[in-house]
Design goal:
- This protein is α+β, with helices and mostly antiparallel strands.
- The chain has three domains: about 160 residues, Beta-Lactamase (2-Layer Sandwich); about 110 residues, no CATH class; about 140 residues, Histidine kinase-like ATPase, C-terminal domain (Heat Shock Protein 90, 2-Layer Sandwich), CATH 3.30.565.10.
- Helices cover about 55% and strands about 15% of the residues.
- The protein has a five-stranded antiparallel sheet with strand order 2-1-5-4-3, with helices on one face. Strands 7-9-10-12-11 form a five-stranded mixed sheet, covered by helices on one side. A two-stranded antiparallel ribbon has the order 6-8.
- Helix 2 packs antiparallel against helix 3 and helix 10 runs antiparallel to helix 11.
Amino acid sequence: MTKSKKSLKLGLGTRIYLSMMALILISLIVIGISTYAFFQNRNEQFHQNRLQQQENTIMLSLQYFIIENGIRDVNAKLENKIHELAEIHDVDLNVYTTDGELLGSTQVELFEKGVFSKTLPDSLLHKLKPNESIVKKERLDGEEYLSAYFILENGNKKIAIINLPYRKDSQTMQNEVSSFLLTLAQVYVLLFLFASIVAFLLSNYITNTLKKISAKLKEVRINKKNEPIEWNSKDEIGELINDYNRMLEELEKSAQLLAKSERESAWKEMARQVAHEIKNPLTPMRLNIQHLQRTAKQNPEELEERIQSIGQNLIEQIDTLSSIASEFSNFAKMPKAQNEKVDVKSVLNSAIELHRNNGAIDLEVKGSDHYVFADKQHLLRAFTNLIKNGLQAVPDEREPEIKIFLEKTNSNVVVKISDNGSGIPDELKEKIFSPNFTTKSSGMGLGLAMVKNIVNAAGGEINFQTKVNEGTTFTILLPLSSE
């Protein structure tokens, strides 16, 4: 079930595109229905107006007929007149008396067959008023048509009731509707195609911009200068990019404050450790000198012998102090990283050459283009230190063997440096990268701390695996250069 859900998951660009297409389609359907309804209404209004025009024309003709023939001769000649008018205007006419009885018609056969009633209903007679007409919807053979009723007058005298049926040309109307719908469909297809192209381009524009921001976010590193995104439009995406650029500025300030805090903390710890390391040889030196002074007073004859013994001891302690000073000087001389695109393979070869005469060193390389964004000299110092530590960790009865493996993964360059030394006991593993840790008999143990700082400064990480009496492997992961 989970797998099927994942396969059906749509990307943001697809969802935006489908949403826009659905909105466009719904809009077109609503507009189409509204347009069709408007067309139908206009068509109905057209037939209403046409019926009104026919009604006015018939009424004027009949009123002129009454004036010309007089009221007495009207009823005798009215039936002939309506046949004449019906033929001229191509309409049907029915004439009723003022009481609602059929007087004459151009549709006599329909009345004879009982399709139409020869008497008007009382409800209609009550509604009819002078100078007004009533339009009703009636049906014949299942087809609806309009039928107008009005009173024919001469002055204030009611003469007859005229009925004017108006049948719409259904075939013509159907052809008009079909033609209209076909034209509308063609226009809407073109609009839909145009809108779909615009929606596709717009969704791509939005998602490509978001992909650009996403790619920039993936490249953000706390240990390097992050480039802001250039954007000129003052829109919602522009606000998002401005927030991203502000975040970069705040990140850089935070990184500087963090680095400053870490440096201050490291130097405080270093000062404490240096004081401790210097104090260790000074104490026996002081005791030896005091002992020499007592010997000079109490046993002058033994002074020369004591000077030889104590002098040798003092020289050893001075050498220890000199070693401490050298290590601290090397650590303190670490300059600010000048990061650049660096070929790790080339740096490893340089480090190997420095120790080629001190033991067997083998480099195995897998793949190519092992480029990282780091300080080349710092990396050389780190690799040199690890190789040197590996060589020094090998007992005297063994031949030193250092194996280095280099490969590239999807996101990192991996360096593994293995030795065949004594390994690191479990109780010392947690202290391995501490500035004051060392497994050697002399020195401050700043080497691995320096290596860790260099790797971290390059945005990488370092770890190790060890087996007592078999050796140790240090693994360094450095992010691939994006340049």
